[in-house]
Design goal:
Layout (H helix, E strand, L loop, with lengths): L4 H6 L7 E4 L3 E5 L5 E9 L14 H17 L7 E3 L15 E8 L3
The structure holds adenosine monophosphate and zinc ion.
Organism: uncultured Thiotrichaceae bacterium
InterPro entries: Histidine_triad_CS (IPR019808), Histidine_triad_HIT (IPR001310), HIT-like (IPR011146), HIT-like_sf (IPR036265)
Pfam families: DcpS_C
């Protein structure tokens, strides 16, 4: 997707603070963190919303959670964290390339 913010971050066209990457996913700090740890886990493949996930993406979605687990543990929050994925405008989704919010620690924003 040429006009997708997270595709541009994936391709290095827009800067980000990357905390994890592998062949399938990348992860970077949220620009407006709501908690001390607030990382976005993003598949390299462009998928717009949860509603666009297909059967063939099943392993990829699992890998997003494995990345979330590792990121939380490496940041010292392995004993407690939250993950969230919003779907659609009415569900609070702003960037239409699926991403898992991984959040832990004290709140830093309302
Ligand atoms: P959502 O509302 O679930 O679509 O979440 C989008 C998230 O992307 C928000 O938490 C934003 O703070 C975050 N965000 C927007 N632009 C950037 C950016 N350039 N780098 C990192 N995070 C971003
Ligand atoms: Zn994209």
């Amino acid at each position: 997707m040429s006009d997708c913010l997270f595709c541009k971050i994936r391709d290095g066209e827009i800067p980000s603070t990357r905390v994890y990457e592998d062949d399938d996913v990348i992860a970077f700090n949220d620009i407006s963190p709501k908690n001390q740890l607030h990382v976005l886990v993003v598949p390299r493949k462009h998928i717009s919303t949860i509603n666009d996930i297909e059967e063939t993406d099943t392993a990829l979605i699992g890998k997003m959670f494995l990345a979330a687990k590792k990121i939380a543990a490496d940041a010292g929050y392995g004993d407690g964290y939250r993950v969230q994925m919003n779907c659609g405008e009415k569900g609070g989704q702003v960037v239409f390339h699926i991403h898992l919010h991984v959040m832990a620690g004290a709140r830093t924003a309302p």
